[in-house]
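The step that takes the researchers longest sounds almost clerical: writing a folded protein down as plain text. The outcome of that step, for a single protein, is printed below.
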Amino acid sequence: MSGTLVLVRHGQSEWNLKNLFTGWKNPGLTEQGLKEAEEGGEALHAYGIRFDIAFTSVLVRAERTCDIILDKVGQPDLETIHDEALNERDYGDLAGLNKDDAREKWGEEQVHIWRRSYDVSPPGGESLKDTGARVWPYYMMEILPRVLAGQKVLVAAHGNSLRSLVMVLDRLTRDEVTGLNLATGVPMVYRLNADSTVASKEVLGDMSKAH
């Protein structure tokens, strides 16, 4: 029997709250973000899962979320691998800008295309397709083999790095993934078949809070 893959988007960051493009910038979690991470960890504790290994990005908002979740499930010392392959999408020249200011500068339609299209990247940054191009190989080489070997694996990462993974796992089209939003701090529990396809998926929280 294959193992279990749990994906969690980090809790609300300080720049989420300020409506800023974040990307590879490194703000911490807000009080609400800390609470969301705690609630995600509590949901996983109630679910009864024990992890064999955890993966996260090298950005503090995901690392802190990972730490909080592992503390809540009673595994604070679990081996955790940090890799920039799981980092948020790089927003390039948009990073640090208020989203409303960006709309004034470049126009509503252009900013919407940069945010929501599959393969159009902002100036100096990555598209969702570009993000997937680094996330997918890392998943295939480092994460998936552990799940197929029967391990229970936690991945705490970001909205776009996880969207690119969910796109593959849930077999979403380009159009479907552009409309996908992941709620902060809400665990998605996947059980995989031996051929790496999804046997089941459970969401341990309220995805309607996604933004």
The chain has a mean pLDDT of 94.
